[in-house]
Amino acid sequence: MRILITNDDGINAPGLKVLTDIAQNVAGETGEVWTVAPAFEQSGVGHCISYTHPTMIAQLEERRFAAEGSPADCVIAGLYDVLKDTPPDLILSGVNRGNNAAENTLYSGTIGACIEGALQGVPSIALSQFYGPGNAALENPFEAAAVHGAATVQALLDANLWDAQDYKLFYNVNFPPVPAAEVKGRAATTQGFRQNARFHAEAQLSPTGRRFLWVRGGPQHEPTASGSDAAANLDGYISITPMRADLTDYALMSKLEDALK
To answer: Can you spell out the DSSP letters for the chain?
Structure first.
């Protein structure tokens, strides 16, 4: 198996090292793991692509490249430049430092890479490590992902629940904020919503008197609906959410058609 990995925390992020180990485990001794990751941190860029300017790419070592672009740019670079003659069988994105559950999913560059992978027709899985009091002070805060990541990816590959729809399926995996030994298992979940966790802006003055705005997130441990990703994570489970990039609200279509008559 040939696996392309990327992230949004940057080429030197510790979570990417964890993902490399996961990918190598899944690929096996005869497989290949290729890395194309952002040269600098790209958190929060979503599915952004560098449409109006070129992306510089540099090879750092064998099968390892850094691109000055977004995670989606890195997927495109991997598919159409680095691996153009030998396309990957799987794309893995992460392991993100922090959860990409609930509304975070919509902002995440980690998810953006998988959206691009799915649009390109390649099976894609995003992996993120929830942070909290149970794991933030561990020697390796990514312990849950490191220990359970390969088995979780392999379980999704074994299930073989992919499809041939235009907007192809991808998976969003979040590991709970607990030590690896306290992970209770895996759960199929929906995307949750934290009622009081909206992003907002805070103003600060620089030493020269200029006004700057800092975007800040809300509390990450707000309760969400039962059966949703964040709820499962806070209960100690690995959440696995099937997703696609089609944003159509199909449940509303008939009502809208009637309203427009």
So the answer is: -EEEEE-SS-TT-HHHHHHHHHHHHHH-TT-EEEEEEESS--TT-TT----SS---EEEEETTEEEESS-HHHHHHHIIIIITTTS--SEEEEEEEES---GGGGGT-HHHHHHHHHHHTT--EEEEEE--STTTTTSSSTTHHHHHHHHHHHHHHHHHT----SSS--EEEEEE-SS-GGG--EEEE-B----TT---EEEEEE-TTS-EEEEEE---TT----TTBHHHHHHTTEEEEEEE-S----GGGHHHHHHHH-
